[in-house]
């Protein structure tokens, strides 16, 4: 059985990539249109990388894979990632 954490578990890894706290960003799923804060996503860490899925339809929202020389970030499952302006 695969287990998952909520999107808050991505805070450390995503802070290495983005200069803002992505877990507080509002997202919209490209699959079902559900909106919510990234922290509410289902985060799977038992893959070669990190995968965030929509809590409504299980659509893949984000993938992050780090190799010895690069980090790949795939956001194609999100219609948008809305961040507050400081």
**Order of SSEs:** EHEEEEEEE
Number of helices: 1
Q: Main sheet, how many strands, which sense, barrel?
A: 5 strands, antiparallel
Structural class: mainly beta
Distance between the termini: 41 Å
Count of separate structural domains = 1
Strand order in space, largest sheet: 1-4-5-6-7
Number of strands: 8
Which term fits the overall shape? globular
Beta content comes to: 35-45%
Radius of gyration: 12 Å
Whole-number average pLDDT? Answer: 91
Would you identify the regions where 5 or more consecutive residues have pLDDT less than 50? none
Query: Helical proportion?
Result: under 10%
InterPro entries: DUF6510
Describe it.
- InterPro entries: DUF6510 (IPR045423).
- This protein has 86 residues and is mostly beta strands.
- The chain has one domain (5-82).
- The chain has one helix spanning 11-15, and strands at residues 5-6, 26-29, 35-37, 42-44, 50-53, 60-66, 71-74, 78-82.
- The strands form 2 sheets. A 5-stranded antiparallel beta sheet has the order 1-4-5-6-7, with no helix packed on it. A 3-stranded antiparallel beta sheet has the order 3-2-8, with no helix packed on it.
- It is globular, with a radius of gyration of 12 Å.
- The model has no long low-confidence stretch (mean pLDDT 91).
């Amino acid at each position: 059985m695969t287990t998952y954490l909520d999107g808050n578990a991505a805070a450390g890894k995503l802070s290495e990539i983005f200069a803002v706290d992505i877990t507080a960003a509002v997202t919209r799923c490209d699959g079902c249109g559900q909106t919510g804060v990234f922290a509410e996503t289902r985060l799977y860490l038992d893959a070669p990388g990190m995968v965030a899925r929509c809590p409504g339809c299980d659509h893949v929202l984000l993938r992050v894979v780090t190799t010895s020389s690069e980090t790949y970030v795939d956001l194609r499952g999100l219609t948008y990632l809305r961040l507050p302006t400081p």
